[in-house]
Amino acid sequence: MKKILIVTGDPNSINSEIINKIWKKLNTNLKKRIFLISSFELLKKQFQYLNYRTKIIKVNNLDSNIKSDKIKVLDINIKFKKSFSVSTDQASKFVIKSLNEAHKLALRGDVKGIINCAIDKTLLKKKSIGVTEFLSSKCKIKNFSEVMLIRNENFSISPITTHINIKDVSKNLSQKKIINKVKTINSWFKSNMKKKPYFGLLGLNPHNSELKKNSEEIRIIIPAIKKLKNLGVKIRGPLVADTIFIKDYKNFDIIIGMYHDQVLTPFKTIFKFDAINVTLGLKYLRVSPDHGTAKDIIGKNKAKALSLLKCVIFLNKFGK
Q: Which tens digit of pLDDT belongs to each residue from 273-302?
């Protein structure tokens, strides 16, 4: 029976609320396979504060033969002074330690992969780095083959560059990066979805910079598309970013953008919380809800749990 790891993530967040909400929706067999990587005492205090009756138990390792459908917690032993408003320093140590433990355990043959709940990226203590980049570094990924894929059952998007400033996007684009990331997605779809996906690749500049001679479209993007077509990838572009999400995106399985907000903003506008964030190209599958920590609604019972629930369903289906 392969396990599913859930990293509870940022302690200053809605994560405890959405974990409790999805637990009520999971069947008993699936509950038995899930292990939370968290602070047992912190989670217990937060559940008590929120008046949740869901029971949690501490386990020593993934081999613990516990048949109960209570929430099983692999304890990250950090002492917190409070159950809410945890200090930034403590939260950072907790998140980094939790991700390191999840990475180590995910390399085992009896683990399907990792789900990490929302994390404030500043807690990772490195400039312009999110969980995608953190775990890519842990897995020693080279050749730009790791991919951030945001998807639901009908459609996907992916940015070529991820958590970097807009002013740095152009210098972080290359033919090799575009080609390798598209190849990673193409391979995953063929292996897991049993289909050859149709890619739409966006240009970088407004109106594709009118295809001016020294533009990124001419120097980088169009040559990458030609090479991908020669490799048998079904792809079209460069498409114009300001109109593709009106309706033409529906003609494609995946839209690839050059930077984070170019594709995530319209995707979230259209699909709201019906999406998950998948990292492909690691040594294991990593998934996370497609939303942030939502600090403004902590304790108000307003958090939407749909994305985390879909993460569990997705990892249970596609995790190796």
A: 889 999 999 999 999 999 999 999 998 999
pTM (two decimals): 0.92
Q: How far apart are CA 161 and CA 285, in angstroms?
A: 20
Give the domain-ending residue among 241, 256, 274: 274
Using CA atoms, how far apart are residues 131 and 99, in angstroms rounded to an integer? Answer: 9
Q: Pairing mode, if any, of strands 34-38 and 71-75?
A: parallel
Q: pLDDT per residue over 221-263, tens digit each?
A: 999 999 999 999 999 999 999 999 999 999 999 999 999 999 9
159 and 243 share one domain: yes
In this structure, the number of other CB atoms found within 10 A of the CB of residue 228 comes to 21
Q: 34 φ, ψ to 5°?
A: -95, 135
How many domains does one find in the chain?
2
Partnered with residue 36 across adjacent β-strands are: 6, 73
CA geometry: angle 100, 306, 277, nearest 5 deg:
45
Q: Kindly report, residue by residue over 120-143, the tens digit of the pLDDT.
A: 999 998 766 889 889 998 998 877
Q: 231 with 150, same domain?
A: yes
